[in-house]
Design a protein that fits this description.
single chain, alpha+beta, HIT family, subunit A, 21% strand, binds 2'-deoxyguanosine-5'-monophosphate
């Protein structure tokens, strides 16, 4: 846990969030500023600031986060129409929370959002 990390606080229930899934290694909750009808953040319980901070030992964890994304997408009935999974890394990608997270986006066609720059 990192003391001033908002996602660590959500994981530890010090901050409120609408949690839709959790297990021993990951927590998934609704984004506070959704860019699509479905916008879920999937975070590891382990505090890893960015994708660049992944270590060899985290390889199974990053795979697990994608499995969780699939599970949550299934729970929210996104399998048929599809969805997008995005990781922002660093300033040019617009990363604002420095606790590694996957954005799971769906519920509408998303091609236009990439063109407009809010593919998240
Ligand atoms: P990124 O740009 O990849 O770092 O996206 C961070 C996302 O986190 C952004 O879409 C908004 C969301 N977010 C920021 N603060 C909070 C919060 O306190 N609660 C929730 N649920 N989401 C948050």
């Amino acid at each position: 846990m990192s003391a001033d990390c908002i996602f660590c606080k959500i994981i530890d229930r010090e901050l409120d969030a609408e949690i839709v899934y959790e297990d021993d290694h990951a927590v998934a909750f609704k984004d506070i500023n959704p860019a699509a009808p479905v916008h879920i953040l999937i975070v590891p319980r382990k505090h890893i600031p960015t994708l660049l901070d992944l270590e060899k030992e985290d390889e199974s964890l990053i795979g697990h986060l994608h499995t969780v994304a699939n599970k949550v997408a299934g729970n929210l009935n996104l399998e048929k129409k599809g969805f997008r999974v995005v990781i922002n890394c660093g300033a040019d990608a617009g990363q604002i929370v420095f606790h590694l997270h996957l954005h799971l986006l769906g519920g509408r066609p998303l091609l236009q959002t990439m063109a407009k720059g809010r593919g998240v």
